[in-house]
Each structure stands twice: as C-alpha cells, then as structure tokens.
Amino acid sequence: MVATTGAQLLPNAAVTNVRKRLLPLTTILTPNVSEALLLLENAGTKPIPEIKTVDDLAHLGTLLKAMGPKYVLIKGGHVPVNEHHQMAPMKQYVVDVLRSDDRTTFFETKFSHSKNTHGTGCSLASAIASNLARGDEVPVAVEKACRYVEAGIKTSPDLGHGSGPINHFHSLEMAKEPPCKSSLKILDSPISDNGLENAR
Description:
Layout: H1 12-22, E1 28-29, H2 33-42, H3 54-65, E2 71-74, E3 93-99, E4 103-110, H4 120-133, H5 138-154, E5 185-190, H6 196-199
Parallel strand pairs: 1-2
Antiparallel strand pairs: 2-3, 3-4, 4-5
C-alpha cells in the first residue's frame, strides 16, 4: 500500500475496502510502519501513534489487530533501532513484531548495511505464506521467513545500480541451513503493558 519512498500506492477508497472487507478475513497482516499508519488514519484513529521504540511497534500491532486479522506482523525494516530498541541514527537492529490474541513476539536481527534490500517486505510476506502453505503455525512461519530474508540480504549479489534485490535462491529449501550464520533472536512475551522489557 505504501512504498519505501513513502508514496501511497493505493487510493483511499481501495484502502477502505482493504480495511473493511479483507482484514476481517486475514490470517496474518504484514504492514510496514507507513502502511500500518495509513490503515489507522483511514479508520479515523486519533491520535495516530508516534513510533519511537519497539514497544510502539507492538502497540501499533494491537491497534491493527482490533481490525480483524488473527495475527499482525509489524515489519520494522523501515525503522531500525539501537541497542536500547529506540529509533536513533545508530542503526543496529531490525525488529519485526508479531501480535496475536495473547502474545507479542519480537523477531530481532542485526541491521544490514546492504543496498540490496529492494522487495524485502514482499519477500518476507511471500515466505510466510509459503511456510503456512507447508503447514507451519504462524509464529514458526514468521521465524523461518525472517531467517530466509536475512540470509537473502547477506548473500545478495550486486546487480546494476541503486537498491538491488535480495538473493532468493540462497537455499533451495529452508530445511537446509542457510549459507550464513543468522543473527535472529526471538523474545516472546504474554500480552502486557511492559512490552519488550517483559520479554527479557
């Protein structure tokens, strides 16, 4: 719905249809922060939350979960954080936040300073869908997809100029070990107001 550049790709009428007709049928919604904020704005949510920390991402997931999806994965790639899990110039980690009815799970990977990140959000969502089709439960599907995308970024070829694609072919199947060590750390927590601190 919203590109990395910030450009809105769907007109507001289409966003309304997505929110009202598709979200109640959705198993897992995987918006980036801009898309999440657009859905909240479209729904008339006031005030629109300000995103400064990983716990703010979890709150965003809670608000979107109320629109009907069984799970919401807020993708943190556009808002990398420092070691204190706050947005800052020092980009150290990317944290994707999965919200369900009773749990918040934080998928933390080291920030990659690669220019080859074009399509990572779409690749992550597609990998999750593939894992679900193979019979994985949602949290397992997300974990495998995070590992897949991280390895895809780490092993990406430099093609052309500008932002290139990730390497989608680093492993023919995720049952094999990726060709590089994963930095993925998973922090799982029951729902509470303490967010990430409660997951430690």
